Amino acid sequence: MKLREKLHWAYRINTTRIADAFRILLGAALTYAGMGHLTFLRQEFAAQVPNWVPLQDDLVVLLSGVVEVILGLSLIVFPGWKALTGFVVALFFILVFPGNIAQYINGVDAFGLDTDRARLIRLFFQPVLVAWAIWSTGGMKAYRNLKKQSP
Description:
The chain is an all-alpha fold and 151 residues long. Helices cover 71% and strands 0% of the residues. The longest helix is centred in the middle third of the chain and has 25 residues.
């Protein structure tokens, strides 16, 4: 069985033009952030790597940058797979959230977040990014398709 047949519940999901515009905007933002990981924002991103991560900070920044570029471009270039990509992007946002929490707990200044209040407020935007990824890609519609399929 081909991958497309296994994942047909998430393939070619229809979304509105507004959702498509937000998907492309999210893809562009992820691509830009990923490029920043790889070049001019490496130190800022390194400041967010939690102390308990067993890899060198710079390696984590580089690897997450590559993932961000791939995810961002995937949101733009592969619209047929946007729902599945949206779920992967949402998962990525969840997986990097501990870095934001560590930045708050450890009081690390980065990206202009130089107060505890600013770092705390930022934490509330991560769920918005997760919701944005799922909404703009038709992820909920795809999920309902999957639920209909289940016995």
